[in-house]
Each structure stands twice: as structure tokens, then as C-alpha cells.
Amino acid sequence: MTDISAITPRRARIAGIIDASxxxxxxxxxxxxxxxxxxxxxxxxFWMTFLTSFSxxxxxxxxxxxxxxxxxxxxxxxxxxxxxxxxxxMLMVISGxxxxxxxxxxxxxxxxxxxxxxxAITSWAQxxxxxxxxxxxxxRVYYMAFSxxxxxxxxxxxxxxxxxxxxxxxxxxxxxxxITPIYILxxxxxxxxxxxxxxxVLGGAxxxxxxxxxxxxxxxxxxxxxGTGAIAFYQLRAHFEDKGRLDG
Length: 248
What we know:
- 78% of the residues lie in helices and 0% in strands.
- It is built from 13 helices and no strands.
- Helix 1 packs parallel to helix 9 and helix 4 packs antiparallel against helix 5 (75-87).
């Protein structure tokens, strides 16, 4: 087993770049290709598409923005919609900051805000998976290398997707937007905590049934029910195990 205290910043940085350059980078770059197709069909020019990915860096907010732009909504309404769409990532940001121990890092506020701006679901899942492999300082180095690499993949995917629309049917390009959710699901199924795997299974199982009645809220409700159900199951199991030991 590797001694985490012996890992240098250079080693952590290289590991982050290598890990991000595989499936995570390709998945996120492919997703941004799909977004670029949607943005172009909504009437965005290249620079509007590029700057949307660069500044928002959150697929729900980006899709909400281009959808409302296509309908001619006001700037205020678009701002509120993007803010609300990205607000559901707040718990992920809080969790990511806790994993990275940003409060104890001694970094100025603007650096911490920038680090959290770069936080994508992909990088959050990755640091959750690798948090026991690094001490907090090296995990932050690993995270920045990983996040900047997938950011580069994302911006490259945005650029390619915008112009690839000229040579490929848009229906095919839209399909790649689902690559990142599939990757996240596979990563969760390999999570170190069994409660995370159970939450993914429960949430995925109830989501199709919820969609019939909850519509666009189905994913949010499925995630809540899956996570709550998984935690409740393990709490009850621990309770009965403790009771069994006491009775024995």
C-alpha cells in the first residue's frame, strides 16, 4: 500500500491529469459536444456557446439558458432559471469543500471560490472515490489537476461539437450528452462506501416510476428517496446488529 504521506505535489498532479485524461475527460468532452449542438440549434453563435460552457460550467444551467434563449425569454428570467438549475449542486459543493478540507486549507476566499467553480459532478465523484489515497493537501493538488484537465476536455468538446454539427446528424451528437451520467453511475457502483452503491441502485430503480407522475422532478425525487432509503437501511441494520450483540 502506498504511503500517502510520501506523495509529492508533482506525483499528485500527474496522477490527476492521467486519471482525468481517460474516461472522465472523454465522457465530459462528449457531453459538451452534445450541449454545443443544442446551443447552436437555439441560435447561439460560437462565442456565445463557448462562453456559456466556460462561465456556467454546469450542464443543467447551460441547458436551461439555451432553452429559454430559444423562446425569447427575458434576461432576468434566464438568470433566475440558471441560478435555480445550478442551486441543486449546492449540496455537492458543500460536500466537495468538506472532502477537500477547504476550511482548514488557509487559502484565500477567491481561490476557494475558483476551486468550487471548477467542481463538476465528475470531479466530485472522483475525489469521493480517491479521498483515502491522499492527505488533504495532496488531494487538493490532485483535484485541481483533475478538474483543469476535464475543463480543457469540456471546452474542446464544446468547440468540436459546434462545428461537427456541419458534418454529422445532430440526432447522433445529442446522444453523447448521456455519456457522463452513465460514467457517474458506473463510478458510484464502484464507490468504497456500500451505502453509496445502494443509494444509486434504489434511486435508479424508482426513477422510471416517478417520472410518470413527477415529470422533470423525477430525478431529484429519486435521488432523495434513494439516498434516504440507503441511509435508513444501514442505520436499521446497525441498530439490529447492536441489539443482537447486547442480547447475546
